Each structure stands twice: as structure tokens, then as C-alpha cells.
Amino acid sequence: MLPDDIAKNIQNAVDRHFDDQIDVTAALVAFPSTRGNEATAQDFMAEAFAARGLSVDRWQLDVDDFKHLPGFSPVSIPYDNSYNVVGAWRPASPNGKSLILNGHIDVVPEGPLDMWDSPPYQPRREGDRLYGRGAGDMKAGLISCLFAYDALATAGYQPTGNVFIQSVIEEECTGNGALACLARGYRADAAIIPEPSGDSLTSAQTGTIWQQITVKGHPVHASRATEGFNAIKAAYVLIQALEVLEAKWNGEKEQHKYHCSHKHPINFNIGKIAGGDWPASVPAWGTFDLRAAIYPDDDIQARARELEDCIQAAAAQDRHMSNRPPEIDYQGFMAEGYALDDMENAAAPVSLLEACHELVHGEGLQRRVGTGTTDARFFGLYANTPGMVYGPRAVDIHGFNEWVDLESVRKSTQAIALFMANWCGLEKI
Predict the structure, then answer these.
(1) What is the pLDDT of residues 307-363, one digit of tens each?
(2) Alpha-carbon distances of 390 from 82, 142, 201, 266, 299, rounded to whole Å
(3) pLDDT digit string (tens) for 20-63?
(4) DSSP 3-state assignment of 109?
(5) Would you tell me which of 27, 141, 250, 316 could form a disulfide with 194, CB atoms 3.0–4.6 Å apart?
(6) How far apart are CA 87 and CA 81, in angstroms?
(7) Exposure pattern of 18-30 as b/e (b: 16+ CB <10 Å)?
(8) Taking every pair of C-alpha atoms in the chain, what is the biggest distance, in angstroms?
(9) Per-residue confidence at 191, pLDDT binned at 50, 70, 90?
(10) What is the DSSP letter of 396?
(11) What is the C-alpha radius of gyration for the chain, rounded to an integer number of angstroms?
(12) 353 close to 1: Cβ distance less than 8 angstroms
């Protein structure tokens, strides 16, 4: 570990510029960077990297560059105006370990605006809370990477190992942004992903499968509804069958070491539903989008087949659907689960992060198992790089009135700065 005086100087450097950090975070939150609309926010990040003297790599994603790689997920939205941005520090004579700091710029749709207490892209601070879509997930974490790097310079030092700060797209639906970074050749000895983990370290996370299921009905006039076949009602039959499968998978948790004590590790979510064309017509079609979680040690293809078998078995019990089976399409996540603690080379960076956290917080680093998916899996599963999910406390992510705890942001920034300094090594500027 660093000498106490240097460590203290780095922590103080974070504090000295924390008001600026909040302002920059709020400025980033103001960009409505939903999928397909990330370009202006990425311009902001590119300018922030350049202002710090980092070399800037900004490139448009091309699915042909990574569709052949493990971890690829099917794409539903074109990459016509979609960019990754990486700010790189490469010392003249590197002799320290290398580090990736990874965060995603994309946010999920905000939902009905009238259900927010204040506009989602007009960031609002109340005490130690910063409100806004993406404030917690995960623009505060992404900006903390910048200011962790700044803290070293403010204290009069620069890293002696390579540091790559990655601002990526599409974490919320495929993860292909992080995969594109791997395809471009970015590698390091460790990675930190400051997702809102509540000041804890994620030991393991579930994987995710997205499916879109389409049911075909038989339209007739509503006055003769019993003579037709209602595709929307039929969709409910399939959803009920999936609920039974969800319970079955949760009943298997004792077989999975990381999630065996979790109350409800596997969640199936019907996140979107549509169907029909006219109130007085029996609907000819109905679709719903399913998000299904899987355990870290699951075979993703086998689990996908279980989902398909469940849907088709339920359809086979229906006279109409047995003749016109539902169509199942894959759009978005085909993401394996990931367990940090399964990696043999994770012990050193994890131990160091624990020490840095304890120095900042005055208490040990707690572990958590995640029931969601993050980009950490790309580093751990496909690049032999321990991907550590460690970030601040946030509330109502993906919901209304999302907010991040600023005191938590301050402390996680200090811990990340200390990790960078110890892991990469320091030299005086």
C-alpha cells in the first residue's frame, strides 16, 4: 500500500474537486442518452478525456467487428450513430500493472414524464442526492472514473501503468459496446466497473436472456368473438406457463453456490407487450418481450431451449396455437452469468480493493451477489481480466425519480483513485 501521506493527499484531492465532479455528473445526466441517442453524450466524454491529456479513441460500432466473438448478443437497433469512446493514459515507460475503468453511457427509457417529480433530464440536487435518469445507473460511476484519475494528478502524480477509461454504449440491452472494446484490442490486468453496487463488491451476477414471443390469432368482429381466436389472451396463457418455469428455476438455487442463499435470484420479467389493431376486432397478433435471468454456472443455450420448450409445450395444449405455434425471436441479451470469485487471478486485485475501501470507509468491504447483468462478464469470461463491480449507492434505477447518494459517490471515487495508484504505480509529474 501507498505511504499514508500520499494516500491522504489523494483522498483530499478527490474532496477538493468534488463540487466540480457533481457538476460534471449533472451535465452528463442532462443528455437523454437512450439507445440510439448516445452520440452527443459521447462527444461530451471525448472532450472530457481530451481536456485531461488522454489520447482519445472514438469509433462507430460495426457489428461485423464483433458478431463472431463469444458474448455477442443479437442487435435490434442499427449502429448508425453509435460510438464508443476510450480515453487512454500510456506512460512513456510503463512498469506498473494496467487498469480498465469501464462505464456505460446509455440509459433506459424514462417512462411517462408526468410520473416523475421533476423532469428526468433536468438533474436536481437535494442534499446528498442527485436525481435524474442515469444519475445512478451509471453516469455518476462513469464520471467518478475521470475524477479518480484527476485526483492522482492533483496530488502531483501520474500512473506508471496503462489506464483505459471506457465510455461504452448498449450495456442496457446487449453489452456489445464493451465487447467492441475487446475486439478493438483493449486489455488490462484488472477492470473496475463502478455500477451502483451500494459500496459493495459483486461476487457473482446472473446472466440474461431476452426473447420476443409472437402469437398469431384469428380476427373476427368483436360481436362474434367466440368464433375467433384472441392472440392477446393466448399470450397470457404462455406468460402463466413461464411463471411456473420461473418458480422451478428458483427452486434449483441450492444447486448454485453463489445464489443459494438469495431469496429470489431468478426473475422473469414481461417488460413489453403489444397486440391488436382495433377495439372491435378480435386481435390477430400479440407479442411480449421476456427478460429471463440464469445462474452464473448455467449453460446459456440449454436455458434458452428450456424457455422455448416451456412456451411451445403450453402452446401445444391450445387447439389454435398447436396448429400455429408461437414464434420466438432473440433480440438483445444473450448474456452468460459471471462469478468474480471463480477467477484464479482475482485474489490480488480484490484484496487491494478491499484494503482501499477499508481505508476510505473505516470498515470492511461487503460482498453481494447480483441478480442483474453487467459488462463485467466480458472482462472475466472472455479476456481473463478480473472485472470488479464496485460503485456507489443508488435508488430507483430504471424507475421514477432515480437518484444517487453523493457521499457514497465521493467515497467510491476515493477508493477507486487509491486502487489505481496502488495497482498501476505512481511517479511524480
Answers:
(1) 999 999 999 999 999 999 999 999 899 999 999 999 999 999 999 999 999 999 999
(2) 26, 12, 5, 22, 26
(3) 999 999 999 999 999 999 999 999 999 999 999 999 999 999 99
(4) coil
(5) 141
(6) 20
(7) beebbebbbebbb
(8) 82
(9) very high
(10) S
(11) 23
(12) no
Q: So where are the chain's domains?
A: 4-205+337-428, 208-335
CA distances (Å), 296 to each of 197, 200, 206, 372, in order? 18, 19, 5, 11
**Fold: same for 4-205+337-428 and 208-335:** no
Contact 238, 216 (CB under 8 A): no
Q: Which CATH class is domain 208-335?
A: alpha beta
Confidence of residue 76 (pLDDT cuts 50, 70, 90): confident
Structure confidence by residue, pLDDT tens digits, 273-296: 999 999 999 999 999 999 999 999
Is the bond preceding residue 138 a cis peptide, omega within 30 degrees? Answer: yes
Are the C-beta atoms of residues 272 and 288 closer than 8 Å to each other?
yes
Q: Which grid cell sits at 124?
A: 436536481
**Which CATH number fits the domain 4-205+337-428, given the four candidates 3.40.50.2300, 3.40.630.10, 3.30.160.270, 3.30.2320.30?**
3.40.630.10
